[in-house]
Design goal:
This is C2H2-type domain-containing protein. Strands 1-2-3 form a three-stranded antiparallel beta sheet, with no helix packed on it. By secondary structure, it is an all-beta fold. It is built from no helices and three strands. It is flat, with a radius of gyration of 12 Å. The structure holds zinc ion. Zinc ion binds next to loops.
Length: 50
């Protein structure tokens, strides 16, 4: 039986790169950001909500 580990890492729904959660701030709601900036991914605007 394969083991599925779940941790606090998620994959971008668009590019599949690892993303991390960002808590809500003054000017944005909670969202995910790429752990490493990916200029090829359409989800680069921090204002985008998931
Ligand atoms: Zn992405």
């Amino acid at each position: 039986m394969p083991k599925h580990r779940r941790d606090l890492r998620f994959e971008c729904v668009k590019c599949g790169k690892p993303v991390g959660p960002r808590a809500a701030g003054e000017r944005h709601s909670a969202h995910f950001v790429h752990l490493q900036a990916n200029p090829d991914c359409p989800i680069t605007d921090p204002r985008l909500d998931f």
